[in-house]
Amino acid sequence: MKQKINLRLILIAILAVITTTIGITFVCYNIFQRQVKQDLRLHAQLLKDASVSDLVEKNRLQPSVDMRITWIDTDGTVLFDNDNEADMLANHSDRPEIEEALMYGEGESVRESNTMEMRTFYYAVLLSDGTILRVSTEARSMFSVFLTAFPVIGLVCILIVFLCVLISHLLTKQLILPIEELARNLENASTTTTYKELVPFVNTIRNQHENILASAKVRQDFTANVSHELKTPLTAISGYAELIENQMVDEEKQRKFAGDIRKNADRLVNLINDIIRLSELDQSETRSDFSEQDLYEVAAERVELLEANAREKNIELSLTGHSVRLMSNRGMLIELMDNLVQNAIRYNVENGKVLIWVSEENGQVVLGVKDTGIGIPKADQERVFERFYRVDKSRSRETGGTGLGLAIVKHIVELHDGKIELNSEVGKGTEIKIFL
What proportion of the chain, given as a percentage, has pLDDT over 90? Predict the structure, then answer.
């Protein structure tokens, strides 16, 4: 970036110098040209007033390096020339300035030399006796003036380039410094930028930076939690298997340990399945597999299948509501329903109740699950949808919970652009409402 700024400043400076020089040369040369023509007119008028014929007779018109004076007859014959012998010069009747003088009383023209280095300015005036007085002078052409000035222009360009390198280095350093400071202190929320135009960009980058850090922490915590959750049943399985292998328990305890091994293996399978499902939901960003679904129909199907689990704890399941259709994925709706209802059964009390209802509110589909269970403390309510977060860790493991059910629910709701409302009171139960 610094190199680009430096290079562009140098190019701009060089172009500015060259353009300015050409412009000034053109303007000054035009002024010079007008002055030369004006001087020729003045000299011609003075000679006209002084009578050219008298001056010629008295030999008062001597050769001059500044001005050439020519006296021409009406037929174009040269009567006198102060630089050359008159009889040696060709007829001048075809010269533009002579033709104009004969027609309009005066005429002028400019002719280039063969080398383009000099220009000759001519001015002719008609005298009272019909003859013509012509004065002329040579001056350098604009091309010649520019070539003469070119070494000076080159030196100025070199000086300008040197100054531009120095100034652009200081300027770019000053311009870039606030950005570099910002990059070094991006994590500091109190850092402000010198350039107000960068504020939206800085806010976006800072938010992305914070999100990346937050995501990294979530992944780190998730990895640690997964390791811990997998280690517990694997340690139990390994311990039981070692006792049985070394014949350190009798046959009756072997059957009990075999049952514990199966329970821990089932827990591992459930845990791995939930982890895989969460990973799939994390990668799912489109709704290409969504189709029209009846949420009440899915709820009725799942309540019927979960009735057996509820009866084991003498818990009454009931479903109310009506048919409500929405664009969704049937598998996701089944997961959503199963996790909510199983949680309501798992954390309920003996002879408790679970009420499920499906309805519509303000154009949104609503799924509600309410239980009469142990409830969730106020301090834990904001965190229950985090991965592996458990209010009662020992109870969750005893009932077979993986700690990922509500995290899966949260992901599914987010994929539907929905929201979750949770109301709970310890000892009185929990109500969760899903808006899709």
Answer: 18
State the number of CA atoms in the 13 A half-sphere of 342 facing the CB. Answer: 18
**Which pLDDT tens digit goes with each residue over 70-119?**
888 988 898 888 888 888 888 988 899 999 999 999 999 988 876 557 88
Task: Tell me the backbone φ, ψ of residue 320, rounded to 5 degrees.
Answer: -130, 170
Q: From CA 167, how far away is CA 24, in angstroms rounded?
A: 25
E-state strands within 273-428:
291-294, 316-321, 325-328, 353-361, 364-371, 419-425
On the CB side of 269, CA atoms within 13 Å amount to 6
pTM: 0.48
CA distance 411 to 339: 12
How confident is the model over 369-428, as pLDDT tens digits? 999 988 888 888 888 887 776 665 554 555 556 667 788 888 888 888 889 999 998 988
Tell me, what DSSP letter sits at residue 279? Answer: H
Distance (Å, whole) CA 211 – CA 187: 11
- Angstrom CA distances, 139 to 82, 119, 343, stand at 18, 5, 105
Q: How many residues in the chain?
A: 436
> Which domains, from first to last, does the chain contain?
2-145 (3.30.450.20), 214-283 (1.10.287.130), 291-435 (3.30.565.10)
